[in-house]
Design goal:
Elements lengths: L2 H15 L4 E4 L19 H8 L9 E5 L6 E6 L5 H12 L7 E3 L5 E6 L8 E6 L2 E4 L4 E4 L11 E2 L15 H9 L19 E2 L3 H14 L4 H15 E2 L4 H11 L54 H11 L4 H15 L4 E2 L14 E5 L7 H7 L1 H45 L4 H9 L12 E2 L4 H10 L4 E5 L2 H7 L6 H12 L2 E7 L3 E8 L1 E7 L1 H12 L14 E3 L16 H15 L3 H4 L13 E2 L3 H19 L5 H8 L1 H16 L7 H26 L1 H14 L9 H5 L10 H13 L3 E6 L6 E6 L1 H4 L4
Parallel strand pairs: 10-11, 12-20, 13-18, 13-19, 14-15, 15-18
Antiparallel strand pairs: 1-2, 2-8, 3-5, 3-7, 4-5, 4-9, 6-7, 16-17, 21-22
Helix pairs in contact: 1-2, 5-6, 5-7, 6-7, 8-9, 8-10, 8-17, 9-10, 9-17, 11-12, 16-22, 19-22, 20-22, 21-22, 22-23, 23-25
Protein name: DNA primase/polymerase bifunctional N-terminal domain-containing protein
GO molecular function, one term: hydrolase activity
Organism: Mucisphaera calidilacus
Length: 779
């Protein structure tokens, strides 16, 4: 059973434990796979495991929830493709915002807002509340995270709005009234697509009417510029009063995010032969080579690893046939996370600048490069430590509950005696003293090492109980990065940014949670990501998006290695001696007596964590490295994104040196050997950083290379349109109109393509002809 299939069955069981009746649907089509559809939805664990389990009938099925009375929830489905996001804003401005509640992002880019079933029938509807706003109530169902979408994306809970971590809110009265009113409620927000040319569009109908008109224009193939021109003209001539120009442009941008309707364009599919391009190679310039979009990276040298881990990491990479970079980085992040706030390093001899060893790492590569298995393998020692800690916690909790019961009985007896003494007029002081002397048992706290998915509030509680810090483990890191971009997640982003330093503090007050104070919290992060989603995310961040705040630059242990070459069968037992030696290092880090091996801060030092410093030779080597690095960064020669990343190496190098040193010794000043290897790590990681950021700094090159390969393979014929490339193919780096247009523009500059605009029925068509020298190069 794959990790993905295990995730689906575990999640389906968790929903059932919450009382949500679920049933399986087609993985991407989302039609029910069981007879009677949603009527078969259940919370029975055995049935759910028969559907999704190890020998289940549909282990890859999407998870669906029956909405309405049976689950106790109904769902407001917001579809931006039909203007639902814009019209919801308008409705909320008029009636008041929807409450904070459970919400997920759908695989298609929409929103599912979960609200309590109000105790009376909630009928399902499509577009009756407003265009693009559907209701899934009694007699309906929705797809739940982490199910897949046909687009290739997944459904994801918002970071602090998942069930269990966020209360499901009641629907406001105005929404229930509109649902109950049905089509009548839609009258105000339902202007015709085009309408009578003489009609005036009054206030209250303007957004919806222009949204519908824009959606119609997009369906028939108009681009965003053409739609803006049409909507601005209609706004000026028909809307009373006209909408703000920026609002009209926002409507055009919203509808233009989605592809046109191919059925409406069927009548323009056939073209005269003369439009297939000029086949004369002599009429074309020589096509220029496409620049290399991936700078070279340094191969990983196992010598950089602590000698106690090196044989184990080499063994993992050999048996799994994966780049050694993956288990090497994962193991160093894991060790740094175990150290957490136990001990720190002060990189200067006469300064209280303190660096904690926690690190953020990400493994980048295509699915075939085996990112997840080596990451999970290096976390196995932590899994064992987690199991031991859980057993200790359960035993301590049993003792605590027994002691609490005993104290309750004793308290009740003494209080009864006090009442009897007071009734008899006797002195009760001794009894009061006895009551006050009863020791209240202290509730044990569960020791945590890793967290897979948690709201910021829940993560804060975990950190409050685990002041050493935790490791955030995410198999697909893009989900976390995207969730932190959602509106309203600014506080969550700030929380993560502060957790990277290792010495952040936080105090929060929440209804139902009370006061949670964290005097110092420390976050390590380890995850995987594919190049495509990473390039898109970086491109948006470097263009000034939400991600342009240094979050990605904190992933200093980020590696994108070259393909390891041909795969070979390696079928042998793991090196048990190497594994046991590595496991012993993890265990020693967990039990590290930091106060006995590190120097304690002074009485007037605000930082109370024990620390080590460099020895004399190591200190000199560190200063040489730092002077060279700082002067280079101050020269202004680097792209701002790369510069921001490299500035974080001020923490990276001391943190790595500390972990390497402690993995090979029991303490003492950090040695020259540890610093030298940390410098080697920094040089190696810098080459990977340059490869990673190249996708964001020069996004068009990767897309152009992908399109050029398709052209050379004969997958794309001359006279193609942008839509011909991305529609229905699911080609990597050519997944949507924006990516293909970037590729086309780059190839035009390089002489690979020539563009022609054809006058056709309805609207012009832009086609691109391929350089004949590319299709048939001269000898």
């Amino acid at each position: 059973m794959s990790d993905r299939q295990q995730e689906l069955v575990d999640t389906a069981v968790r929903y059932a434990e919450m009382g949500w009746p679920v049933f399986p649907c087609h993985p991407t089509g989302h039609q029910p796979l069981v007879d009677k559809g949603f009527y078969t939805a259940t919370t029975d664990m055995d049935t759910i495991r028969e559907w999704w389990g190890v020998r289940g009938r549909w282990p890859d099925a999407a998870i669906a929830l029956r909405t309405g009375e049976e689950s106790g929830v109904f769902v407001v489905d917001i579809d931006p493709r039909h203007g639902g996001d814009v019209l919801l804003d308008e409705l909320e401005a008029e009636h008041g915002p929807l409450p904070h509640t459970v919400e997920c992002q759908t695989g298609g880019g929409g929103r599912h807002i979960y609200l309590n079933w109000p105790g009376q029938r909630v009928k399902c509807s499509t577009g009756q509340v407003a265009s693009g706003i559907d209701i899934k109530g009694d007699g309906g169902y929705v797809i739940l995270p982490p199910s897949d979408h046909k687009s290739g994306s997944t459904y994801n809970w918002l970071l602090d709005q998942e069930p269990g971590g966020c209360a499901i809110a009641d629907a406001p009265k105005w929404l229930l009234d509109r649902i109950a009113a049905g089509t009548d409620a839609n009258a105000k927000h339902s202007g015709a697509v085009s309408g009578d040319e003489g009609d005036v569009i009054p206030e209250g109908n303007r957004n919806n009417t222009l949204m519908r008109l824009g959606g119609h224009l997009r369906q028939v193939g108009m681009d965003v510029v053409e739609i803006k021109v049409a909507l601005l003209a209609r706004n000026a001539s028909k809307c009373q009063p006209p909408l703000d120009v920026k609002e009209v442009e926002r409507i055009a941008d919203s509808v233009s995010r989605y592809e046109p309707d191919s059925a409406r364009q069927a009548y323009i599919e056939c073209w005269p032969e003369r439009y297939l391009g000029d086949g004369d190679a002599d009429a074309w310039p020589d096509p220029q080579p496409i620049p290399d979009d991936l700078p070279p990276v340094k191969p990983f040298d196992p010598v950089l690893l602590p000698s106690t881990l090196r044989p184990w990491i080499v063994d993992i990479a050999d048996r799994m046939q994966c780049p050694p970079d993956f288990p090497a980085v994962a193991s160093m992040v894991a060790l740094s996370g175990i150290l957490g706030r136990k001990i720190a390093i002060r990189p200067k001899q006469r300064d209280n600048w303190t660096v904690y060893p926690n690190l953020w790492g990400v493994l980048i590569g295509r699915p075939s490069l085996m990112k997840s298995p080596p990451m999970k393998e290096t976390l196995l020692p932590i899994r064992r430590m987690t199991a031991d800690a859980l057993a200790e916690y359960e035993a301590a909790m049993a003792e605590y509950l027994a002691a609490s019961d005993l104290q309750g009985i004793q308290t009740k007896v003494i209080r009864n005696n006090i009442a009897a003494a007071m009734k008899a007029g006797e002195d009760t002081q001794d009894l009061q003293d006895e009551l006050a002397s009863l020791a209240r048992p202290e509730e044990p706290k569960r020791k945590r090492y890793t967290v897979n998915d948690a709201t910021v509030e829940a993560l804060g509680e975990i950190l409050a109980a685990n002041p050493n810090g935790v490791i955030i483990e995410r198999d697909e890191l893009i989900g976390l990065l995207k969730s932190l971009e959602r509106p309203g997640q600014e506080g969550a982003r700030a929380f993560y940014l502060e957790g990277w330093t290792g010495d952040g503090s936080c105090e929060s007050d929440r209804i139902g949670r009370g006061n949670v104070r964290i005097d110092g919290f420390c976050l390590s992060i380890l995850g995987t990501i594919q190049p495509g989603p990473l390039g898109t995310y970086l491109g948006e961040a470097l263009r000034g998006g939400t991600g342009d705040d240094g979050l990605m630059q904190r992933f200093q242990m980020a590696v994108w290695p070259d393909d390891p070459g041909a795969w070979q069968v390696v079928d042998r037992w793991p090196d048990s001696d190497a594994k046991n030696a590595a496991y012993a290092v993890y265990q020693r880090f967990d039990e590290l007596p930091a106060s006995s091996i590190g120097e304690l801060p002074g009485a007037f030092d605000s930082n109370t964590t024990p620390f080590l410093r460099f020895d004399a030779a190591a200190q000199d080597r560190f200063y040489v490295w730092m002077v060279d690095r700082e002067n280079h960064l101050r020269s202004g020669a680097e792209h701002p994104a790369v510069e921001s990343h490299l500035t974080k190496y001020r923490k990276l190098l001391p943190a790595l040196a500390l972990s390497i040193h402690l993995a090979e010794s029991d303490g003492g000043p950090v040695t020259l050997d540890a610093v030298t290897r940390a410098v080697g790590w920094a040089d190696y990681l810098e080459s990977h950083a340059r490869r990673i950021y190249s996708r964001g700094i020069h996004p068009a090159t990767a897309h152009a290379r992908a399109l050029a390969q398709r052209i050379e393979q004969g997958d794309v014929a001359t006279g193609f349109t942008v839509r011909d490339v991305y529609h229905g193919h699911h080609w990597s780096l050519l997944a949507d109109a924006e990516q293909v247009q970037l590729a086309v523009d780059e190839l035009i500059e390089l002489g690979w393509l020539r563009t022609e605009t054809l006058n056709t029925p309805g609207r012009a068509k832009v086609v691109h002809h391929i350089n004949a020298k590319v299709a048939a190069p001269t000898p």
